[in-house]
Design brief:
alpha/beta; 4-stranded parallel sheet; two-stranded antiparallel ribbon; 4 helices; globular
């Protein structure tokens, strides 16, 4: 299922998303298993991962990390998704929560 979701966003409506910024929740993915799995799928399909960020509850996102991507992926729960969304909403980049 995860594989299908990523492939879909990489070629949604003929517009290819190429550069991804991936966040994972340090508490839910302490060994970076899912962070690396998602990155591997993207790269295997010709995409680029501009940054992989393993973050805690109060971590702040640096602007240069966001600027290098065209799509943001959040791995974790609702709290992780909302934390990231609050920090990047002004960029108007599409975001996927997994």
């Amino acid at each position: 299922m995860l594989y299908c979701i990523i492939i879909h966003i990489m070629n949604n409506g003929g517009v290819m998303a190429k550069n991804f910024l991936i966040f994972s929740n340090i508490e839910k993915d302490p060994e970076k298993k899912y962070l690396n799995k998602v990155a591997d799928i993207i790269v295997s399909k010709g995409g680029h991962v501009s940054n992989k960020i393993h973050m805690g509850k109060n971590d702040k996102i640096l602007n240069h990390c966001i600027n290098d991507s065209d799509t943001v992926i959040s791995l974790g729960g609702d709290g992780t998704f909302l934390n990231i969304a609050r920090q990047i909403y002004k960029t108007e980049k599409p975001m996927l929560g997994i």
